[in-house]
Amino acid sequence: MIESMNSSKTLKINGLKVLAWLLLAFGASSCLDEQSVPEATPIAFVSFYHGSPQTDPITITVDNRVYNSNPFGYGNYFEYGNFYTGQRSFSFRNPGASSSLLDTVVTLKASEAYSFFIAEHEDLFEPIIVKDQLENPGQGKALLRLAHLSPDSPEVHLRVGTAVEPVLKDQAFGEVSAYKAIDAGRFALKILDAESGEEELVSANDISILAGRIYTLVLRGYKENTSGTENRLSLQLLRNYPNY
Questions:
Q1: Strand 43-50 vs strand 113-121: parallel, antiparallel, or unpaired?
Q2: What is the DSSP string of 31-75?
Q3: How wide is the angle at C-alpha 104 spanned by C-alphas 221 and 73, nearest 5°?
Q4: Closest residue by Cα to residue 159 from 141, 149, 171, 151
Q5: In the beta sheet, which residues pair with residue 89?
C-alpha cells in the first residue's frame, strides 16, 4: 500500500532556494527513465531505497519502461532522477519474474522531490512514498530525518550526540519523519526504545554531519535477528541531494 503524505510530518518548502538546490543536484544528468528531457518540460525528482531484508533484488519499471539496469538490492540507494510529471505507473518485481510484487500509480508534481522506501510488513512487500519538503538548514546546521524500516522494532526516539532530549520521538515502523535542523559536527546517532526512553537499540558512532547538507538516517534490519549478521538491526546514513 502507499503511505499517505502527512503534512504534519513535513516542513514547508522554502520556495526558490529549494528549487535552486534541486536544479544543482539534478541538472547535470537525467535518469534512465528520462533519457532526454527538454528544458521547458516540467519534471519531478524521485529517489529509491531498498530496505527490505527478505526481498531479493528487484527491477523497477515506470510506465512499462525498465528504470534500473543495475541490481537494486537490500541497502541500495538510487539518487534522485528526473521524471515526467502527472500519473506514473510504478511496478516492482524480481528480475525475470512473470508477476510483480506490487503495482501502483503515483501522481508526480512539477519541481517536487519524492522518496520511495522499500520495506516489508508481515512478509508483505510495502513501498513507503513520501514527498520531500525542505527548508534552509541555517548557518552551521544540517537537515536530518529518520526512516523507520525495521519491522520488529518498537517505536523509537533518535538522540543526537550528548543532547538530553531526543531530536525525534515516538517514531513507529513505516514512518519517515520530517527533516529536523541539527548542529553540524561529529557525534553519535542513537536509536532508543521509546517506551523506556533510555534503552539503546542501536547506534552509529563518530558520524560526521556537515553544515548545509541534507541526510536521511535509515533504521533497518531486525531487532530479533535470526538469519545472520547481514539482516541485523543497523543504521545507514544517506546523503540526499549529493551535488549540493
A1: parallel
A2: -TT-S---TTS-EEEEEEEE--TTSPPBEEEETTEE--SS-B-TT
A3: 35
A4: 171
A5: 105
CA distances from 115 to 3, 132, 164, 186, 225 (A): 12, 7, 30, 26, 27
133 confidence band (pLDDT: 50, 70, 90): confident
Residue 29 corresponds to which cell in the numbers above?
Answer: 544528468
Contact residues for 70 (Cβ-Cβ < 8 A; gap 6+): none
Cell of 215: 541526510
Average pLDDT score over the chain? 83
Closest CA to 166 of 117, 131, 201, 135: 201
The full DSSP string for 123-180 is TEEEEEEEEE------TTEEEEEEEE--TT---EEEEETT-SS-SEEEEPTT-BPPPE
Sheet holding 77-84, edge to edge: 77-84, 43-50, 113-121, 124-132
**pLDDT-based confidence at 28, cuts 50/70/90?**
very low
Structure confidence at residue 33 (pLDDT): 53
Concatenating the DSSP letter of every residue in 188-202 gives EEEEEETTTSS-EEE
- List for the chain the helix, strand, coil content (%; round to 5): 5, 45, 45
Residue (of 7, 49, 2) closest to 149 by Cα position: 49
Residues 201 and 192 sit within 8 Å (Cβ to Cβ) = yes
**How many Cβ atoms are within 10 Å of 80's Cβ, its own excluded?**
22
